Amino acid sequence: MAELLASGGTPEMVRAVLDNGADAVYVGVKGWSRRRAQYEMDDDQVLVSAEYASSLGKVLRVAFNTLPASREIPLLLAKVEKFTSAGIRDFILTDVGAMRELSRRFPGIQIHASVGCTIINPDDAWFYKEAGATQIVAECRMGPEEMRRIREEVGVGLEVLVHATTCYTLLGRCTMSSYTRQEWRIDAEGKNHFLGSPNRGGLCYRVCLAEWDRVGEDGETEVERLVLPNQAYFLVDDIPSLIDLGVDTIKIQGREYSVPLVGRMVRFYRALIDAYVGDRSSFRIDPWKERMAGIVSARDGERLEKTAGLISESLMS
Ligand code: SF4
User: Fold this and answer.
1) What ligand 1 atom has the least distance to the C-alpha of 168?
2) If you ran DSSP here, which 8-state letter would residue 31 be given?
């Protein structure tokens, strides 16, 4: 049966995710995952969270899914050593060199090629499998035929994101926020923390969601206002077909949502997956769509507020 995975932005969220029925939770290490520090954890919080997951017989994945500078590699290896010594076996990575090195040094660990890898077809999946990935995260525009081929031909685990919206660009390939605001600092351990570049371990300001002006040939006159497309994908309707396709992991995104909302989302998807797997022939999706409508409006409310805050933050000097 497909594993249900959700995000743990704080130790409290880790508990909510696991207590509400997720099989696994992922967390980011400060400066090493694609979020701002507020939704990442220090090493001790990661270890405590892993212990909690293990006490329930569940799994904690640690995200190091940014592109490290060469001089940060020893720090990455030291952290992975620390976490594997404490029994953590699952890591989310983007950098190909880091995948090769970790799979060589720590045999038996599970390497999840992050959404930041922009894996959109079976060839991409082969590439990351050969680099050491045991599971890949599908880019949100990947279709069912590619998924089927990855399951049957590539033979690597497949994870899909649900309950989120597409990036205007391909996930993992966006540099837009860096043009509006960039800041970085080096912490006491020597890790560089970026704002304005999710790929380097910082924050996306969601600037694609601002209103854009298209100007004429003179470079000044406003011709039209544009809103770039930002669509939801892998909706509730898709869950049965994802399960039928043999997807290994269904991942709910949303480290920045409130803990009660994350708990509610996990409860919903747990019940939905169990209901479908329990009795596929009499399963009907409509009642689930109605239940989901309330969650979506709560989620959209939180997301809109966060997006407005991020866009205005991007304009601060
Ligand atoms: S700016 Fe928009 S397209 Fe770029 S990473 Fe952020 S949400 Fe995605």
Assistant:
1) 3
2) T
